[in-house]
Amino acid sequence: MNIPNSHPRYKSLKTREKIVNSYKDGYVAAEGLIAHGRGEAFDYLLGETMDIYSADAIRAAACLMLNAKYPVISVNGNAASLVPDEIIELSKIVNAKIEINLFYRTEQRELSIYNTLIEHGANEILGIDKRNSTKLPEPDSDRRIVDKNGIFISDVVLIPLEDGDRTESLIKMGKKVIAIDLNPLSRTSMIADITIVNNIIRVMPELIKESKYFRDNNKKCNSILNDFDNKKNVAGSIETIKDNLLKKYNELYR
Ligand code: ATP
Ligand code: MG
Questions:
Q1: Has residue 148 been placed in a domain?
Q2: Residue nearest to ligand 1 atom 12, measured at CA
Q3: Cα 223 vs. chain centroid, distance in angstroms?
Q4: Please, which residues bridge with residue 177 across strands?
Q5: Quick check: CB of 188 below 6 Å from ligand 1?
Q6: How confident is the model over 173-219, as pLDDT tens digits?
C-alpha cells in the first residue's frame, strides 16, 4: 500500500506495514500483531512522544547495562522486525549478548529471526543452538527455554515486549530485568527493575545515545541507579496518560 507521508498517522501506518511484512515473512507471530495493536493503543494514550519518565528510565537502563557483568538482550519477532539495527548497535556499545527467545516458539521463526539479524550485521546470536539450551527453574517448560551461554548466566536482561510470566521467572532467578513495554499496567511493567514505558521504536535510538554518553561518563551512573525508583516512575507514566485523558476531556466538555 502506498501511504502518503502527509497522512497524519504516517509513522504509525508505516510501522504497521513493517510488522505485517515481517508476519508475512514468517517471523512475527500472529499473536505478535495483536500485541502490537495493544501497544499502539497505549502509545496513543501516552501522546506518542518521549516523556520525562521514559527518558529517566532509559538513562537508568543504559547505566544498568553498562555496569552489568553479563548483559543479554532478549529478542523476539516484533523487536527483530521493528529495530534490528538498533539491537545490534546497542549490543556492541554495552557489550551485551543477543539471544533469540520466543514466547510462541517454532524453529522456523527462530531461524528466520536469526537470518534477519545476521543480514543486519550481527556476529553472534544465541538461543539457536539447541545443544546449548536449558530451562529456567519454573513450570510450563517450553516457555522457559534459555541459552546456557546467554540469559541463563546473565545478570542483566533487556526484554522488549515481554510476557509477565516470563518476566517473573527471570526475576525469581535473580536477574535484573529492564523492560520496554508501552503498557504501564502490564505485569511486566509492574515487576521489572527498570520499565521503559514507551515505544521500542522511540526507545532504542535514545538508549543507544545514552549508552554512548554513560560509557564515557560512567561515574554519573551510581547516583542515577541509586535515585531510580521504578514504581514511582511507572506511576508517572500512568499520570501522563491520566493528564492526556483529562486534557481531551476538558477540550470536549468544558
Ligand atoms: P503481561 O503478560 O506483562 O501482563 P500482556 O499479556 O498485556 O502483558 P503481552 O502480549 O504478554 O502483553 O506482552 C506484549 C507487551 O508489549 C504489551 O504490553 C504491549 O503493550 C507491548 N508492546 C507492543 N508493541 C510495543 C512497542 N512497539 N513498543 C513497546 N511495547 C510494545
Ligand atoms: Mg502476557
A1: yes
A2: 163
A3: 24
A4: 157
A5: yes
A6: 999 999 999 999 999 999 999 999 999 999 999 999 999 999 999 99
pLDDT band per the 50, 70, 90 thresholds, residue 142: low
Task: Note down the domain range covering 181.
Answer: 52-239
Is 14 a domain residue? no
pTM over 0.85: yes
Residue 233 lies in a domain: yes
Cα 199 to middle of ligand 1, angstroms: 10
Residue of 188, 198, 207, 234 to test ligand 1 pocket, by largest number of atoms within 8 Å of CB:
188
- Distance (angstroms) between ligand 1 centre and the Cα of 233 equals 18
The 10s digit of each residue's pLDDT in 53-104 is 999 999 999 999 999 999 999 999 999 999 999 999 999 999 999 999 998 8
* Residue nearest ligand 1's atom 11 by CA: 163
Distance 94 CA to ligand 1 centre (A): 24
CATH number, domain containing residue 88: 3.40.50.12640
Tell me whether residue 250 is in a domain.
Answer: no
Q: Which residue carries 504497521 as its cell?
A: 16
Q: How many domains does the chain have?
A: 1
Is residue 117 within 8 A of residue 125, CB to CB? The reply is yes
* Beta-carbon neighbours within 5 Å of ion ligand 2: 163-164
Per-residue HEC secondary structure of 151-198 comes to HHHCCEEEEECCCHHHHHHHHHCCCEEEEECCCCCCHHHHHCCEEECC
